[in-house]
């Protein structure tokens, strides 16, 4: 536990390798694309219907819609959208290397 705690406390001061930064950008872009492309699929429609029904507070964006809702609802819905058209295509290169 001491070794892990020490590593974690120093990690914030370390520079990430360039390939890790680049791969992270690809994963973020893949997730955002899944959110938009999945908005019209059944899981995305369910997520948007939930957001429209439970928008107690307004102010946070729900991706792929004109709905504004509270931060908790938006986090849930946007998380649902991130999985609504998930194809894991950012891992394709790794699979072909095997």
Structure overview:
The chain is mainly α and 98 residues long. The protein has a domain at 42-86. The protein has five helices and two strands, in the order H-H-H-E-E-H-H. A two-stranded antiparallel sheet has the order 1-2.
Tag the structure with descriptive keywords.
98 residues; single chain; 5 helices; two-stranded antiparallel sheet; 2 strands; mainly alpha
Distance between the termini: 34 Å
- Uncertain runs are none
Question: What strand order characterises the main sheet?
Answer: 1-2
Strand content: under 5%
Q: What kind of sheet is the major sheet? A: 2 strands, antiparallel
Structure described in brief:
The protein is mainly alpha-helical. 62% of the residues lie in helices and 4% in strands.
Topology:
Elements: H1 2-11, H2 18-37, H3 42-53, E1 60-61, E2 68-69, H4 71-84, H5 92-96
Antiparallel strand pairs: 1-2
Helix pairs in contact: 2-4, 3-4
């Amino acid at each position: 536990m001491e070794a892990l705690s020490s590593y974690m406390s120093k990690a914030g001061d370390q520079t990430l390798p360039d390939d890790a930064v680049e791969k992270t950008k690809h994963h973020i872009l893949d997730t955002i694309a899944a959110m938009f492309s999945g908005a019209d699929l059944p899981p995305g429609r369910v997520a948007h219907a939930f957001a429209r029904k439970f928008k107690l507070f307004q102010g946070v964006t729900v991706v792929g819609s004109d709905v504004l809702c509270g931060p908790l609802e938006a986090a849930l819905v946007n998380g649902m959208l991130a999985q609504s058209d998930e194809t894991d295509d950012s891992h394709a290169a790794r699979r072909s290397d095997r």
